[in-house]
What we know:
The chain has 32 helices and 24 strands. By secondary structure, it is an alpha/beta fold.
Amino acid sequence: MLILTLAVIYAVSGQLGLYLQGETRGITTLWPPTGVAVFFIYRFGYRVWPGILLGLFGVAYVLGESVPYSPFLMLLISILSILEASLITYFLKRNNFSPFFLKINDLNHLFFWGILLFPGLNALFGSGLFYFNGYVSAEEWPISFFGWWLGNSMGLLMLVPMAFIWSWYPSKYYKQRNQKLIELAIISCVAIYILLFNDLFDKENQFQLFFSFLLIIFCSIRYLHHGATIISLILSISIILQNRPTDGIALEMEKVIDQEIFIALIYMTGFYISTVLKQHMEVQRNYFREKTYAETILNSIYDSVIVTDSKGIILSVNPSAEKILAQTESKLIDMPITNAMHLKLGSTQENLNPVLLDGIQNNIQNFPEKEIILVAGGKSNNVELYLSQISIKHKQLHFAVSHHLYKLNGCVITIRNVNHSHELKEQLRYQASHDYLTGLVNRRDFENQLVNIINSKEQSNYHHVLLFIDLDRFKVVNDTSGHIAGDQILKSASHVLEKTLRKNDLLARIGGGEFGVLLTNCNRAKGLEIAENLRKAIDNFNFKWGENQYNLGASIGLTTIDDQTVSMEDAMRKADIACYEAKDSGKNNVFIYQGSQNSKRETDMLWLSRISQAIDKQQFELYVQPIVFCQSLQTSHYEILLRLKLENDEIISPAEFIPVAERNGAMAKIDKWVVETSIQWLKDNPLRKINLAINLSGASLGDNDFCEYLKAKISDSALAKNQLCFEITETSAIRNYETAQYFMKCSKEFGVSFALDDFGSGLSSFSYLKSFPVDYLKIDGSFVKEMVHNPIDRAMVKSIHEVGKVMGIKTIAEFVEDYAIIESCRSLGIDYLQGYGISKPFPLSKI
């Protein structure tokens, strides 16, 4: 449809051009189809070129026999027309031509590519084709060339700008300008009447020239491009019609050129005037739009913004700045910035106004200070301040606005009120350095201050003392009255300690019921006196919770900080060892670190370090000992045993490190390593179908989260039911009675079996047995190894087996060391055997 529309418009405009030519087949002074072709290709793309071809053949068809050219020549002329319109469009777009004619360059490009170059090339090749095909003689060729060129140029000049201007604007543009459009229509009608239907002018009247230019100038200024296009078109057509030959005689070449130059001058005058004004208005519009945007943004942002000149005189402020400076904009304008506010450094109260003024005057981009207090209107605010230099130099800005804004050097000061964030930072800093429960300094901050003291000891003639305090019987409060009571007693105890200390001493909570005290500028004797006062204060402190009353004690370790103290870790270690010794020697006393002693605490700490290293470096190794059926001696399953393998391949028995781990809370970590390693071995050896029994400590048994941990590990491994058995000692089960019951019940749900180890060693074994859902009873080895020679031990083994048999629990005899014990167990009906008489332990990897 678009191509057909183009063809029709092209053909009609061609007929109009031929009509304006008059009764002669001489020079065509206006060829509108060129303008039609350029407009359609520019607006709708190159795809519409067939419309040009159809339109040209439509013109030829209407003319009929009066067209003496061959169809082939018509095809070549059509190709030239398509190329002309396409090339003009291509170079206009390539040079960023705007159809709104916003810049003078837009006109320049249109005149050069669309008026001079490509119409001239089209005329050159077209008239050349006529000459070589014998349709024009050598004498007629110049007339043919210039006629072709002028017709194409004038057609493009008259139609393209008008089509662009009147078609590209949205309909709302015209609705907003009804008054001006009515005025333009009236002026156009008057102009047509005066020029075409009035004898006021004759062809030789010079006033016509004056009237034409006066009219085009007025309309270009008043109505811009719309007025320029309409009036130019009216003037051009009027001139062509007034000079249209009617007697069959072509116009003289000189008159044609004069006429075309006059028309071109009218168009150029109108378009250059309207474009310059349009550009001027666009610059002004952009400036005021950006100014409005900037003011809107400044007025809406939370930060205070102050604009000054290069001397620090205030030029503008936003509402936020008015608020923080406690003055209105009218009072602040032209005021020196240093009079409007006073800046000072938060830490030293140093006056920062000279620094601010220096930053403004010397183009410093960043204000150097961060902790700034702004004082204005009698109020102080914590602020962040930023400087940004401005320098405006713009020719268009100078053209559009007054001269004093053409060159502006100054500074934009952005002030951010950080009172809230300052308070938040202080709160976060406090939370990071203090214990949330007692409000005391926490371990991290305590250690940092201890580092500072140690690093500065060389510049001081004083010694310092470090105390570790462990509250005795604190666990009893937690276990009997709950954690809420425990928290309250910690708060109360911390108040007691604080009241006993000197003003400059530092008290910190460093653990559950543990406190650290740093006694600065204090010798050992004075430190011992203060430590004893702290112990007595806690000893005299009675805590009542409900109907219960508790009396605490304090085990205190003391060490001095002097030139022999090498690090914070060294001081903490010594104080910890001293505290441990105080607790180990009866509690509620003060112990001084002696330096050369080889205490149990030091030994424990060495072992704890070795245990941690063994887990990290995989120095633990799993051994197994078979548990066999009593009658056949065939292996039923294996008990996992733990060994520590040193770097020199020395194997350390668990009897050396397990008690240390139990005393110092490290068993849960060891248990998890054993469980994870055992499960991983079973996953790596799925075809073996081997069952493993793993010993669990009381620490894991008392951990309510251990069951969920174990469930996750077993679920990920897809182990068979009862492929894992956990051995729990009778004493651990009784000590952790409720948690042991929960753990066994929970673990049974995902296919774990249980063995009660060392059964018979407790005092209430049989009464507790029915409370635990165990699968195996491992008879205590002290009975088994003497059962052949001691009838009482035999009777104990027999009774345990009989009880297990009644309850449906299998029995395992431990410490089976020879064949005589095996036969004795067989005679009693024991289900399983384990001991050196069956097999010694060997690495799990050797199965």
